[in-house]
Amino acid sequence: MRIFNPILVLVILSLSLGACNRTKVQENVDVDDANLGESSNGSGANSSGLGTDGGTSGSGLGLAGGDGDPLSKRVVYFDYDSSSLTAESQLIVEAHANYMLSNSGVSLVLEGHADERGTREYNLALGEDRAKSVAKLMQAMGVQAGSMRAVSYGEERPVALGQDESAWGLNRRVEILYGN
What we know:
Layout: H1 6-20, E1 26-29, E2 75-77, H2 87-102, E3 107-113, H3 120-140, E4 148-154, H4 165-171, E5 173-179
Parallel strand pairs: 3-4
Antiparallel strand pairs: 1-4, 2-5, 3-5
């Protein structure tokens, strides 16, 4: 016969509840901020060389299609500790800005992410800076700030769980998500 250990149950329960409360999200960042995209985080060093084959969010909007088309890519990647857009990322952001300009009434969410290195607070700020970099370029091309919303998830929503450069590189990103 097994003996019920209430202390063990309490410890397991408290660990489970603690893990549930871990996610901290910084939302509704004002993308019309005067300091939009300015970051003291970035070195803007060399490109990571990672592909930008982003997800399929918003695919029902009739966005252009082939793999070589920048508009078909919904994720832009960043170098380590940087919120500066690479040349390839700029092409993707410009394509989405042109789409926004041609399709009034469409809105989007820019989700900023970071890899697991650094504190949660630092990574939330870095994710915000990355989302603001994308928004700043779109605004410079004429997209209205009111049609975009920046959200930072920091390190809390990784797409790759490894602990090497290939995984970290995939987690340093901004996802471009369309909505109405």
